[in-house]
Automatic annotation (TrEMBL):
InterPro entries: MTAN, Nucleoside_phosphorylase_d, Nucleoside_phosphorylase_sf. GO terms for biological process: L-methionine salvage from methylthioadenosine; nucleoside metabolic process. It comes from Arachis duranensis (Wild peanut). This is 5'-methylthioadenosine nucleosidase. CDD domains: MTAN (cd09008). GO terms for molecular function: methylthioadenosine nucleosidase activity. Pfam families: PNP_UDP_1. Residues 23-253 form the Nucleoside phosphorylase domain.
Length: 264
């Protein structure tokens, strides 16, 4: 009986991979990153939270249709006390979990700005599709717990998308700080990461846990190993790089339209 259940699960997963993608959830951390996509795809803010969302949370959903796709973009909203974007791993993990539970999407896209390393050949404005996600600030120096802390996970592979759109592919390292300590740097090097953000690996964890394919589109605002202070360079380039991210995400979603997961 158990073998039949497993076989049925595998058959269902195979069928879902062959079916055309219809429902996409985009997870994005900052309002300034979200609004250009909201405007581009003509999404409208949902005044009522999806079924199952807790009352009173600041999370914002924008929803609409684009070609044959049902698109929901979630932004964690502003911190209720401080009024700034709710960036970081905790907010993104919670929103990703709630969105998957409520909407049962075919695909998650985590789009956003990020830092990157010139030692790895990155430049401001570069767009990357992420192949692997890991954490660099969860240090647990105990056997096996150390691997759990790193939490390395593969993103859903999209070789046809990468080839068609001529996108760069790189590994991503995630932490809850904008700056980088020496210990962080050692962990990022160990993760072989080109790109550094504050959400990706948390989204990957939840998507993997709930068995929803996830892809990651990251645009570089600042060079972590460059000469300028990270916060200064990030703010200086945010507007221009967000515009580049907007264009890249539109191309990605246009490519996805009408295709199954196996065709990506």
């Amino acid at each position: 009986m158990r073998e039949m259940d497993i076989s049925g699960d595998q058959s269902g997963q195979a069928q879902s991979q062959e079916r055309a993608i219809s429902k996409i959830v985009i997870i994005i951390a900052m309002q300034s990153e979200a609004l250009p996509l909201v405007n581009r795809f003509q999404l409208t803010e949902d005044p009522h939270p999806p079924c199952g969302f807790p009352q009173g949370v600041p999370w914002v959903r924008y929803h609409g249709s684009y070609k044959d796709l049902d698109i929901s973009l979630f932004w964690p909203g502003k911190d209720p006390t401080l009024g700034v974007d709710s960036v970081g791993t905790i907010s993104s993990a919670l929103v990703t979990y709630a969105a998957i539970q409520a909407l049962k999407p075919d695909l998650i896209i985590n789009a956003g700005t990020a830092g990157a390393f010139k030692a790895k050949g990155a430049s401001v404005g570069d767009i990357f599709i992420i192949s692997d996600c890991a954490f660099h600030d969860r240090r647990i120096p105990i056997p096996v717990f150390d691997l759990y802390g790193v939490g390395s996970r593969k993103a859903f592979e999209t070789p046809n998308l990468v080839k068609e759109l001529n996108l760069q592919v790189a590994k991503l390292s995630t932490g809850d700080s904008l700056d980088m300590t020496q210990q962080d740097e050692s962990s990022i090097i160990s993760n072989d990461a080109t790109v550094k953000d504050m959400e990706g690996a948390a989204v990957a964890y939840v998507a993997d846990l709930l068995k929803v394919p996830a892809i990651f589109v990251k645009a570089v605002t600042d060079i972590v190993d460059g000469d300028k202070p990270t916060s200064e360079e990030f703010l200086q380039n945010l507007s221009a790089v967000t515009a580049a991210l907007d264009v890249a995400v539109e191309k990605v979603i246009t490519f996805i339209n009408g295709k199954s997961l196996t065709e990506l």
